[in-house]
Amino acid sequence: MSTPLPRDIGCRNLRWALALLDGLAAAGLRTLVLSPGSRSTPVVLAAQRLEAAGRLALVPILDERSAAFFALGLARGSGSPVAVLATSGSAAAHWHPAVIEADMSGIPLLLLSADRPPRLRGWGANQTIDQTRLFGTAAREFHDPGLPADEPAALKAARALGLRAAGVSLGPRPGPVHLNLPFDEPLVPAGDCPDPAPAMATATAPAARALDQALDTWPRGRGLIVCGPMSASPALPEALWRCVRTLDLPVLADPLSGLRAGPAPEHRITGYDALLRNAGTAAALRPDWVLRIGRAPVSKVLGQWLDGIPAMLVEAGGAWTDPTHDLIRRITAEPAALLEALAGAGLVEPDPGRLAAWIGADRTVRTLADQYLAESRWCEGQLIRTLLARMDDGEALHCANSLPIRQIDTWSGPITARIAIHGNRGASGIDGQLSTLAGLSQAGPPCWGLFGDLSFCHDLSGLLLAGALKRPVIVVNNGGGRIFEYLPQHGRPGFERLWVTPVAPALAALARAFGLAHHRVADAAGLERTLDVLARGNANGAGIIEAVIDAECSRTMHQGFWHRVAGLTRLTPERP
Ligand SMILES: Cc1ncc(C[n+]2csc(CCOP(=O)(O)OP(=O)(O)O)c2C)c(N)n1
Predict the structure, then answer these.
(1) Which residues are registered as beta bridge partners of 115?
(2) Is 220 left (phi over 0), alpha (psi -120 to 50) or beta?
(3) Which atom of ligand 1 sits closest to the CA of residue 478?
(4) What separation in Å is there between the alpha carbon of 197 and the centre of ligand 1?
(5) How far apart are alpha carbons 131 and 134 in whole angstroms?
(6) Which DSSP helix (H) or strand (E) runs through 272?
(7) How far apart are CA 423 and CA 421, in angstroms?
(8) For residue 483, how far is its CA from the centre of ligand 1 (angstroms)?
(9) Going by CA atoms, what residue is nearest to atom 25 of ligand 1?
(10) In ligand 1, which atom is closest to the CA atom of 483?
(11) Is 556 in the pocket of ligand 1 (CB under 6 A)?
């Protein structure tokens, strides 16, 4: 290989991009999701070299919005940083919804926006916009290193920038990092262009945080643990269950906490969304303090009930999850470490009567739910029970907003199989759901989808990624956004047209167009039969299962159930 020409700008671009990617890969980047474009070429050329060396996988996706949601799913499913790359102009703006979700959910997303040289910005040059701090405070860090240079110091700085960007995206407060990368033309080297010299530096893991002095002043009285949406560390379940067994503490386990499924002691409460609708029970079970792990729970009823209860949040990163402003303490520690310490600290007086009251109330609503579902017409409750019963250990489920994840919360109960449940609950958008599902499916275990009809239609370009799906997407065809029927807008003039916005997607035709199987079911038996057919075929196969549900019947059924729970005089056994 010859030495690069000093004026070969294309080679300079490439070598600089190689140094940057080397740093990113050294800090854990394994996948780059790229959307086609010209200005990003130096990074693509560099990425091809890393791919050839087995250090990076490249995934091309046309629509940048879909690409970013795919990367989000990939990063959520793998726990590793994932990068997106796009050309200059409006391209990177399409990442914004996924960046917002990654910010709110703490997902390590690396945003590599190619740009024109700074001298062209603001002068009407083609495809040149102001990309500076495009994502505002949603990005943990923003860097614009300027045009590439090829001196050793510049290459060293590029590699350091890669290390830093990936490191910051991983924590202590995981989230998106934006690198805006201007490149001058020519974008392709004129001749041979050797790799920069290998660097000496190696990546360092984010520093471990020391456990705070939290235990010194632990509040007195009755306690409760609430586990909201989170990426739980592998050590958490064991530490949690050991701690609550020792201290007789109940644990409210959100469907996105990672603690709803798999084995757990009866301390795990899943029926809280229903049982807290019973005013007497809600008052009787009110604790003196709550220890919160993870983000704000899906259940609105739980969120409202927590309002005013002194709370402690244990979190290894920097998030301040406190929508009701009740935090008396924020404990910067790994939740598992705090729970280990709490279990042995002798600060919480076990209260078996209180625990029994929670368990009793939980059992009562679960039995009622079983009876209710057995008696009532087909709706999401039976669908969810059927689906969860058919999922195997190790599989995953991605639930769209808004009703699907709420209904999982209401109807799942404790889930026997060891499955993972995912949802874009950071910003609770109905966007990018199929693309996220495709990313999750690519990252890890076979992942099912449970979507509303609007959220499905919102991300039709995600169907281009259907090749990644390994399990069916169940689309609840209930004629639009039925969540609004549970909100005060219900019944206002123009309600159907302006809030529900009914759609009638031709799901069979869409499925056919994208080479997917389509099945239409209208009752639990139909769903069972379809799942039988799929299971016999191509290992549960991907495809669309259109579940037709009568919205009016569903609403009456849900409200009837809550009404029945609210009307019960006693959900909790007497205190001993
Ligand atoms: C990007 C985005 N746009 C709009 C909304 C507001 N929104 C929340 S739920 C919803 C309706 C969703 O309908 P569907 O997917 O059919 O699910 P359903 O609520 O009927 O279960 C809408 C429009 C949102 N959360 N995100």
Answers:
(1) 182
(2) beta
(3) 20
(4) 51
(5) 5
(6) helix 272-275
(7) 7
(8) 7
(9) 429
(10) 19
(11) no
Q: Output the CA 453–ligand 1 centroid distance in Å.
A: 9
Map tokens 């087909």 to a residue.
Answer: 378
Pocket-testing residue among 483, 496, 553, ligand 1, by greatest number of atoms within 8 A of Cβ: 483
Tokens of 471: 């399990």
Ligand 1 atom at shortest distance from the alpha carbon of 403: 21
- Decide: 475 in ligand 1 pocket, CB within 6 A: no
Angle between helices 335-345 and 236-247 (to 10 degrees): 20
Cα-to-centroid distance, 563 and ligand 1 (Å): 25
Task: Using the mean position of ligand 1's atoms as its centre, give its distance from the Cα of residue 485 in Å.
Answer: 12
The CB of 430 under 6 Å from ligand 1? The reply is: yes
* Whether residue 429 has its Cβ less than 6 Å from ligand 1: yes
In 3-state terms, what secondary structure has residue 291? strand
Q: What tens-digit pLDDT sequence spans the chain (576 residues)?
A: 445 445 899 999 999 999 999 999 999 999 999 999 899 999 999 999 999 999 999 999 999 999 999 999 999 999 999 999 999 999 999 999 999 999 999 999 999 999 999 999 989 888 999 999 999 999 999 999 999 999 999 999 999 899 999 999 998 899 999 999 999 999 999 999 999 987 654 434 333 344 656 787 899 999 999 999 999 899 999 999 999 999 999 999 999 999 999 999 999 999 999 999 999 999 999 999 999 999 999 999 999 999 999 999 998 887 888 888 888 888 889 999 999 999 999 999 999 999 999 999 999 999 999 999 999 999 999 999 999 999 999 999 999 999 999 999 999 999 999 999 999 999 999 999 999 999 999 988 999 999 999 999 999 999 999 999 999 999 999 999 999 999 988 988 989 999 999 988 899 999 999 999 999 999 999 999 999 988 777 656 789 999 999 999 999 999 999 999 999 987 765 554
| CB-ligand 1 contact for 88 (6 Å cutoff) | no
Q: Which residues of 2-32 are buried (b: 16+ CB within 10 A; e: fewer)?
A: eebeeebbbbbbbbbbbbbbbbbbbbbbbbb
Is residue 459 within 8 A of residue 435, CB to CB? The reply is yes
State the residue for tokens 């019944």.
491
User: Considering only CA atoms, which residue is closest to atom 24 of ligand 1?
Assistant: 429
Q: What is the DSSP string of 80-109?
A: S-EEEEE-TTTGGGGGHHHHHHHHHHT--E
| Pick from 148, 118, 109: nearest CA to 18 | 148
